[in-house]
Amino acid sequence: MKKTHIIAEIGINHNGSLDICKKLIDVAALAGCDSVKFQKRNPDVCVPEHQKSVMRETPWGTMTYLDYKYRVEFEKPEYDEIDKHCKEKGIEWSASPWDLDSLEFLAQYDIPYIKIPSAHLTNIPLLEASVATGKRVIASTGMSTLEEIDKAVEVLKKGDFALLHCNSTYPAPLEELNLNCIKTLKERYNCEVGYSGHEFRLGTTVASIYLGATILERHITLDRTMWGSDHLSSVEPQGLIKLVKGVRELETSLGDGVIGVTEGEKKVRKKLRG
Q: Longest C-alpha distance within the chain, in Å?
């Protein structure tokens, strides 16, 4: 079967620290992930006007929400270091642009794909601009109706694309994961489909491979107790190692579905059946 592409979603779990970021890249590379992914924003564009001046308690003191978003945002010096560090560790990287400015920013790097977050699946101008780059576009489908996904695919199918089934709750309850939607997406759009998981469990993410997922995305963190909105539903280092191992073992064990006597069975067959 096709090797599953495993994305370690760092997002903003680096908390604005390049040192934490590099440690997360190291963890992903050690675990055997295929790529790490970040989130890129222009806070002036992405933060709604009514939220910009809202005060927020942070590890760096009390500040406006807009200042906080700038505090955890990486710019060119940091992404240059990320690009260099990933090359040294032998792992690819990409990012989710949350606005057109950020998409233009990412264009200066040789990234393998552009990731559209669930929040922007209905942002048609962003989808169109992403397809226009000529790069592969991977789009998450969380909190979306079938009609909204239909409209997105009308744009995405003009280029190379894949969809990720997703539940946008952090953390996502098991009874709402609806992993069978992986099959629904594959049948409806005849495209590569993966799974972006936000649940506590690892087994459900591994199980998505059996349903046809060939791309997996999970948020990662050094410690779930760290400050920040995404850490609680993220996978810690040892969990990530277990997850990748589980995926690779399942890939190996699924086989091709053709019934026959295996090499290992031939000696047993001869002994027991003559």
A: 82
